[in-house]
Amino acid sequence: MYAGLIELPWWGYIVLTLVLTHISIAAVTIYLHRHQAHRALDLSPLPSHFFRFWLWLTTGMVTKEWAAIHRKHHAKCETIDDPHSPQILGIKPVLWTGVFFYVKESRNFETMTHYGHGTPDDWLERHVYTPLHKLGVALMLTLNVIFFGPLIGLGIWIVQMIWIPFWAAGVINGIGHYWGYRNFAAADASTNIFPLGILIGGEELHNNHHTFASSAKLSNRWYEFDIGWFYIRALEIVRLAKVKKVAPVPKFDLARPTIDLDLLQAVITHRYDVLAKYLKGLHHLATEEFIRLSLGANERRLMKKLLGKEEQGLHETHHAQLTGLLGQSERLARVYAMRKDLEALWSRSAATHEQLVSQLEAWILRAEQCGIRQMEEFSFRLRTYAV
Question: Do 312 and 341 share a domain, yes or no?
Fold first, then answer.
C-alpha cells in the first residue's frame, strides 16, 4: 500500500496536524478578522496573500463572505438579525452546527453588499479564490495523500476541514457569547473563554474584542496572552505589518479634589473599564444583600447575572424577578439606578462639555454621600482616572 513521500512517527503526524491547523487559525485571526473585517492593522502583500492562499487551500472560505458576516455580527449582535447568536439561536445549534449558519448567511445578497466592502477584488479573487473556492480544499487533499499516503493523508485533511468550522464558527461564536469571564460590560453577551489565547489564536479573549472591536491586540489584562498579537508584532518588526489601533490602557493618577474636563475625558475614554469596576462593586454589594435576604444559591447566581444586564434587554420574566429583588433592597435599587446615570455621561452627544462636567461632579457627590461603602470606594477610584 502506498505510504506517501514522507513517513513520520505517530506523534510526528499529530504535531504536523497541529502546526497546519494552527497556521489556519493564525490566518483567520490575523488576516480575516483583524486585518480584513476590522482594519485594525495593515498587512503587506506578502503575508496578506500567503494567508489568503492558505485559507483557500485549507478552508475554502471567501474573504468577502467572512468579513461581511462578521461585520454584520457586530452590527446586529444578540438580535434576530445576528447571523449566529447563541442567545437567540441556542448554544447547542451554534456550537455544533455553527458553520451552517455561516453558509446560510453567505448566500444573503444584502449582507454581502452592505457589509462586504473593501475586501480583495483583484484578478485572483475574481477568477480563482471566489469561483473556485472548492478547488483549494481538493488540492489540499491531493497533496496530503501524495505526501502522507491515502489513510493518514485523508485523516489529516479531515481534521483540517473541521478545525476552523468547529473552533471559529462553533466555539468562538457559541461559547464566546455564552460562558466565560468578562473584563468589560459590553452591550452584548460576549465572554472571554480563557485568558491564554493560544489554541484559537487569541480569539479566546472575545469579550475584550467586542469591547474594542478595532483593536489589533485582544489581550487586556496582565494575565492574558494573545498569540495572534505576538505574531502581529513579529510581522511589524520586520515591516510586514503596521498596527493601526489598540485598546486604550487605563491610566491613573492621584485622586482629583475637583472635577474638571480632564477627568471627564478620562472617564469617557476608559468608560468600559469604569463600568466593569462599577459592576464589580455592585456584585459585592449584591452578595451582602443576598445574605440578608436569605436567597438560595441558584437565585443568587441568576440575580447577579441579571444585575449586570441592560434592563431593556431582559426577558419579561427576568425583568419581573429583578424588579422584585430591587423592591426588597433599597441599597441595590439605588446603585442599580445610578448605573444608568453614569452611562448617560458618555451617551449624551448633545450636551456641552460644561454640562457633562457638572453632571459628573453631581454624580460623584451623590455616590460619596449615599452611605454605601462600595459606592464611596468607587467614587474615589473614579477621581483617579487620567488621560
Answer: yes
